[in-house]
Amino acid sequence: MTNRIQRFLTAGLLVAAAVVAVAAPAAKKQKAPAAPLRVACVGNSVTYGYGLSHRERDAYPVRLQEMLDEHYGAGRFEVGNFGHSGATLLYKGHRPYIKVPEFHQALDFKADWVVIHLGLNDTDPRNWPDWKEEFIPNYRALIDSFLVVNPQARILICRMTPIFDRHNRFQSGTRDWHAQIQTAIEQVSQGANVQLIDLYEPLHSRPDLFPDALHPNPEGAMILAKTVYAALTGDYGGLRLPRLYGNGMVLQRDEHIEFKGTADARQQIRIVLSKDGKTVEEHGAFSRADGTWSAELSQHMPAGGPYTLTLTSTPLNPRDYHLYYPTRYPMELSNLAKHATQTLTIDSVYFGDVWLASGQSNMELRVDECNTQEADLADAARLAGRLHLYNIPARARTDAVEWDDEALAYTNRLQNADWQGWKSASPEVVKRFSTVAFNFGRVLCDSLADVPIGIICNAVGGSTTESWIDRTTMEWEFPNILRDWRNNDYGQPWARGRMTQNIARALNKENASYNPLQRHPYDPCCLYETAIQPLEHYPLKGVIWYQGESNAHNLEAHERLFRLLEQSWRKEFARTWRCEFQKKPELPFYFVQLSSLPRPSWPAFRDSQRRLAEELPLTWMAVSSDLGEENDVHYRTKRPVGERLALQALCHTYGKDIESEGPTVRTAVLGQKNTAVLTFDHADGLAATRGFELAGADGIFYPASFEIQGNQILLSAPEVTSMPRAVRYGWSGYTNADLHNGAGLPASTFLVKIR
Fold it and tell me: Are residues 327 and 391 in the same domain?
């Protein structure tokens, strides 16, 4: 019997009772209690609460019951846990859910709402390889079985919770089959017209909550409960925008702009862009069942501002629900809404060019820590209103200290970034901002006249390349680096040691916060999840990057990782225009080569960076080896680094006819009498006094004398008595090699073979 029929009969009984009351005044009037709405949580061990010390308290269906009672009053909902450990969705699987007692109990429950989370155990090699073709038909049959006992039941099915790389079958099939099953579940949702709940994304960035790589701990179970609660009730916390949206923000000019946010389900969203009190554009949108909404600007906005952005959300008229949501609702949901009309106003919105500055400590190094502070602060004062900065430093710094429990907790929760908001350039703001990023923005402002420039800086001292790459990319392209990073050989010993020092309390079994899976900014994916993913696809003009010191011990791994970094970020910030075949060009990357420092691996690493810049599309490099300090990795002359990055961007992104590169080797060939001849590009005004070495067939390098002739350099060495085979330049950790061109731009460290 459906709730709708129950309410009808209940109303009829009340009318009958009223008639009896009139006939017999002495009888006591009593209102029949409304039957609770029944919610069946169907699933496997994750639903059951396997691994939880107190599953009767911590299993997600129990937490869901508590949340519903808290928000809507006790007695209005009844949640049943019908999870069975090891159950498969597949009927021919090793433990089909339809054959366990909980399935029949769930049918007898005659639920009004049914939440199904199955598929994890179908990744077992006993199941998916043989029976995968039956997954979708079996899932549809399972849904139908609940509709047979209650034709008006609302069915919600779940994308599966993650299985992490520590699982013993992760690379032998589970990773691949898990992804295939997720796709099948999405097909079931579409084909059966049932709501899909995503249990994967809220937990995929939280491996610390899965002790055995499969089952969540109590905190993970609470996240499940909150996710299911929001999907059931449509309560997503009201109207919200990504963190970068705020007063003083800069949006990318001359480009397709799509506003995205969240709101309670079934809300109508109104977006108004105005200037000087006059509407420039107005758009409407509706929040989807998962609370998301989006709206596009119809025009590509030119550089300028300030504008005002006003967003309003109001509950959708219930008669229009069927246009946007599944139709199987056993009760009217409008009375579950927690938020009425809401309005958000963002003032001083500019359209200009937005750049992301990221990396480790040499990008992070502040203006007040560098030797050009006086000049930088003077420039900051004149750039007010033109240069807009958003600083996102780390809350818990990776200094040589042991973190307290609070820092450990908010790092695990991916809350280690301090989102300081948009600020117009001023001496007070700039002195605490990245010197490299500020000077990059300064040169752009001076070169691009009336174009507002926005710089977002989220660099973290000591961070590794792998910490800035998304987890899905790492799971598929470099899974071995995820395994026990703190103790494996991929991480630089210094970085692994600093991580161990910072999280020592979490690794102490006598401490209440003991968690062997404690997160840290240096471990793979952590900073992507903390400081890139929350940017939520914010449209960018490009990226400036300064990192590598923490990966210089293993250039082979870094070459893989840097490629994956670009791939990861280009995917994150890629946007398809309204016309599906018009895609935004790939995100340009401008990075800084490592400076000079007496570390043995650095020359080869710098040469590897040079080759990456030559090989990778839309990737350019700025040299800094002439600026390094022999005793300090954090050299204090950073102003030229920002300027060199800006020259590269002005040339390659903005099309300015300027010299942006130092001398680069075009060819290396044999000359006369055991000499080598190097031909250079970007060689106008070529000059040098030292730095070259020559090797013969024995592979031993000797200092070379040289002569400059136009764009060529002729080299020889008395010790090389046979044909020279290779030339290298600037080949020491700390180098005083000084090859440069007439623009004063230095050449990179290089090693080239002679042909």
Answer: no
State pLDDT tens for residues 500-517: 999 999 999 998 889 999
- Measured in degrees and rounded to the nearest 5, phi and psi for residue 233 equal -100, -20
Residues 198 and 169 in one domain: yes
State how many domains the chain has. Answer: 4
In a domain, 20, yes or no: no
Looking at residue 473, its pLDDT comes to 98
Q: Both 689 and 739 in a single domain?
A: yes
**At which of 302, 334, 350 does a domain end?**
350
For tokens 């987890």, the residue is 471
- Give how far Cα 362 sits from Cα of 71, 203, 235, 542, 651, Å: 49, 32, 43, 19, 24
Q: Indicate whether 378 pLDDT > 80.
A: yes
Amino acid in the structure at residue 467: S
**Do 287 and 222 share a domain, yes or no?**
no
Q: Which two tokens stand for residue 593?
A: 């080569």
Interatomic CA distance for residues 708 and 734, integer angstroms = 24
State pLDDT tens for residues 489-499.
999 999 999 99
Exposed/middle/buried for residue 171 (C-beta within 10 Å: 0-12, 13-18, 19+) = middle
The answer to the question of residue 531 being in a domain is: yes
What is the DSSP track for 533-590? GGGTT---SEEEEE--GGGTT-HHHHHHHHHHHHHHHHHHH--B-SSTT-BPPPPPEE
Q: CA 450, CA 29: separation in Å to the nearest integer?
A: 76
Regarding pTM above 0.85, the answer is yes
Structural domain contains residue 668: yes
Domain encompassing residue 218: 34-233
Distance in angstroms (rounded) separating the CA atoms of residues 97 and 88: 6
CATH of the domain at 617: 3.40.50
Residues 309 and 320 in one domain: yes
Q: How far apart are CA 640 and CA 83, in angstroms?
A: 62
User: Is there a single domain that holds both residue 407 and residue 477?
Assistant: yes
Neighbours of 640 (CB within 10 A): 19
Distances (CA, A) of 134 to 138, 143, 159, 219, 224: 6, 14, 18, 34, 28
**Alpha helices for 383-434 (secondary structure H):** 405-412, 427-430
